[in-house]
Design brief:
Layout lengths: L2 H18 L1 E2 L2 E5 L2 E5 L3 E2 H20 L7 E6 L7 H7 L3 E6 L3 H14 L4 E4 L2 E3 L7 H9 L3 H7 L2 E6 L7 E3 L12 E8 L10 E4 L5 H7 L7 E4 L8 H4 L6 E6 L2 E8 L7 E10 L3 H12 L6 E8 L5 H8 L6 E6 L4 H11 L2 E8 L3 E2 L3 H12 L3 E11 L5 E5 L19 E4 H4 L9 E4 H7 L12 H12 L1 E13 L15 H16 L5 H17 L2 H22 L17 H12 L18 H4 L16
Parallel strand pairs: 5-6, 5-12, 6-7, 8-11, 12-13, 13-14, 16-17, 16-19, 17-18, 21-25
Antiparallel strand pairs: 1-4, 2-3, 9-10, 9-11, 14-15, 19-24, 20-25, 21-22, 21-24, 23-25
Helix pairs in contact: 5-6, 9-10, 15-16, 16-17, 16-18, 18-19
Length: about 625
């Protein structure tokens, strides 16, 4: 054996011995109580329990108003680090403590006696799934009688793995079949979680690695008001959001500080779910496939709101007929007002805590929005997103997906850990990329509080301003790249027309600049980078007769931004960052006209007719563009 490997084993053995060395008494402070628990326990168990008490349990409950009386269930009670200060702070409550390890259970009993906590019931049992062969009537009777011996006899034995380097950490074996146990394995009598219903608990403290989801499944009919603890395996959010009781929840995911299954007290009457707004105008050819993809996951928390924006092709009638028996699909009709108007209308009609916006010709992966809602609940993020690719038609008329310009090759996570491949992306980085609002889920309160809407006076590319504002304020955006929205490419798209609508981009950046100044943004670098990318991309797609006036108007706005923000904001943005030929020359012409004028935020409120697509459309055609600051 190499020397390095031998020394590594020696160090690990020494560390494990130190973590397993008994320590005590254990002082602690929580829930306004200062205690010293006399029983000696392994050092790791003591330190781990005190960390969890001070980081999770005490903070989670200190912001809650608990009644004088109640019933709490402590699963994974250890030596009583949570139960005993809680029992002292709330003497009107009854605490049921479940601890499977005989050594730690003995420490728990000694600490209960030393603290004189008569409102604590301790049982040397694990708690697990609702075993089909269990006799629930006899289990309920034994619990009511607090008959530990009968419970130990009635509860089925289950295999658990003990971590030798972390004394006190016990995890349920994934395959608890009969046979030889693995290293460090033990079998403990395990109470089916459904039997706890007879206790009528309203508070659950959960520390049961490998059994978290099974325990909450067993308690899905119990009106819990508080759930706290830590999880090592994914707990479906429906077990918190679709079950009785307030279920105010704080369940951090071990080893993943950005994730915690959470539920806060409701501050309004919004439905705990997601509404997907689909703005539809003359999309009869695509709308059925779009809606079917959004409802394929059969998630009751998700509804699809199709907003028929005055279609004349019978698309609204098709939705009405095709989805007449689908309660999760809601059709709204309104006079034509443009895509922005339809999206805003659908959001106003929504009663959900989260909202998404999808184009009527796009198709989503089956689990995309279901898992994005799950991700939103686990992170609490203002914005979460999936990946996207391009849906294109071949010569034979068949549609195929191909990776988009931002595609990331990401493998699917294990089925029982659907969020394990989550990555975090900076919102300000996403601002500089292609607007992709349709692959995201937004917290409704975030959009409302930030006053972020689609600009209804802009009839194309309205998603650009929405993207700029939402990502500016979003912070980090949790992302699941392996789930995709398929963005359909076809000749009827606005972005393919190359007409005056391309000038709408200028108006939206001017609106974003004004918002930034009014809100006091500290950095405008992402906005400027996005402007550079958008101008270059838009210029390439315009008709030839529109390129010169667009270049002149874009250069004018660039110089107005310089005057409004000051030269220090443009240190990384010389005119040469634009690949569009002639941009620098146009910008210098504007600078000469404004030479001698001091910079001011007021420049953000200046514009010219050529910055507005609707005005430009009615202007007489010109062979060459006039200089925007000169009479035309």
């Amino acid at each position: 054996m190499p020397v390095e490997r031998f020394l590594g084993r020696m160090r690990r053995g020494r560390d494990a011995a130190e973590m397993g060395a008994p320590t005590g008494p254990v002082p602690l402070h929580a829930f306004g109580q200062s205690l010293e628990l006399p029983a000696r326990v392994p050092r790791f168990l003591a330190e781990d329990s005190l960390w969890r008490l001070g980081t999770i349990y005490d903070p989670a409950l200190s912001v809650r108003s608990l009644p004088r009386d109640g019933v709490a269930v402590d699963i994974g009670a250890g030596f009583g680090a949570f139960a005993l200060p809680f029992a002292r702070a709330f003497p009107g409550w009854t605490l049921w403590c479940f601890e499977p390890n005989p050594e730690f259970f003995a420490a728990l009993e000694r600490n209960i006696a030393a603290m004189g906590c008569e409102n604590v019931v301790a049982l040397n049992l694990a708690v697990g799934g609702d075993e089909a062969q269990a006799d629930h009537a006899r289990l309920a009777a034994a619990l009511a009688a607090r008959d530990a011996a009968a419970l130990a006899t009635l509860c089925p034995q289950r295999a658990y793995r003990r971590d030798t380097s972390k004394p006190g950490f016990v995890e349920a074996e994934r395959r608890p079949a009969a046979g030889a146990l693995g290293p460090g394995g033990s079998r403990y009598p395990t109470l089916p979680a459904g039997a706890l219903a007879t206790l009528e608990p309203t508070l659950l403290k959960l520390l049961a690695p490998g059994m978290e989801a099974a325990i909450l499944e067993g308690l899905d009919d119990v009106p819990l008001d508080h759930v706290i603890g830590e999880t090592w395996h994914h707990v479906p959010a429906r077990l918190i959001y679709d079950t009785p009781g307030a279920r105010e929840t704080w369940l951090p995911v071990a080893g993943a500080p950005a994730r915690a299954l959470r539920r806060a007290p409701g501050t309004d009457d919004r439905r705990e779910g997601l509404d997907i707004v689909v703005a539809m105008y003359n999309a009869r050819d695509w709308i059925a496939e779009c809606v079917e993809s959004l409802t394929a996951a059969d998630d009751p928390a998700i509804r699809v709101r199709v907003v028929d924006d005055g279609s004349t092709d019978g698309g609204g009638e098709l939705v009405e007929e095709r989805f007449a028996h689908e309660l999760r699909v809601i059709l709204h009709r309104k006079p034509n007002g443009g895509c922005a108007s339809a999206r805003n209308y659908g959001r106003l009609m929504s009663d959900a805590t989260h909202v998404a916006f999808v184009d009527s010709d796009d198709v989503a992966d089956r689990e995309l929005f279901s898992q994005l809602l799950e991700l939103a609940r686990y992170t609490g993020a203002e914005v979460v997103q999936g990946g996207f690719d391009l849906l294109e038609q071949d010569a034979g008329g068949n549609w195929h997906s191909r990776p988009g310009p931002e595609a990331v090759d990401a493998s699917a996570p294990p089925p029982n850990e659907p969020l394990s491949t989550m990555t975090l992306m900076a919102g300000t980085d996403l601002m500089t990329r292609q607007p992709t609002i349709w692959r995201r889920v937004y917290r409704r309160d975030f959009l409302d509080n930030r006053d972020i809407w689609f600009p209804e006076h802009i009839r194309a590319f309205d998603d650009l301003l929405f993207q700029l504002l939402s990502l500016q304020h979003a912070g980090e955006v949790p992302t699941l790249e392996h789930l995709r929205l398929h963005y359909r490419q076809h000749p009827g798209q606005d972005i393919r027309q190359g007409d005056e609508r391309g000038f709408y981009a200028l108006e939206m950046f001017r609106l974003a600049l004004k918002r930034g100044l009014q809100e006091g943004w500290r950095r405008f670098t992402p906005l400027l980078r996005s402007y550079v990318n958008t101008i270059d991309w838009t210029y390439d797609g315009l008709r030839d007769d529109l390129k010169a006036p667009f270049l002149a108007a874009a250069a004018e706005l660039w110089v107005l931004m310089e005057k409004a923000l000051g030269p220090e904001a443009f240190g990384d943005f010389p005119d040469t960052v634009f690949v569009t030929e002639g941009f620098g020359e146009q910008a210098n012409r504007v600078r000469r006209r404004l030479d001698g004028l001091e910079g001011s935020h007021a420049f953000a409120w200046l514009d010219s007719a050529m910055m507005h697509a609707d005005i430009l459309r009615h202007m007489p055609p010109r062979d060459t563009a006039p200089h925007p600051t000169e009479p035309g």
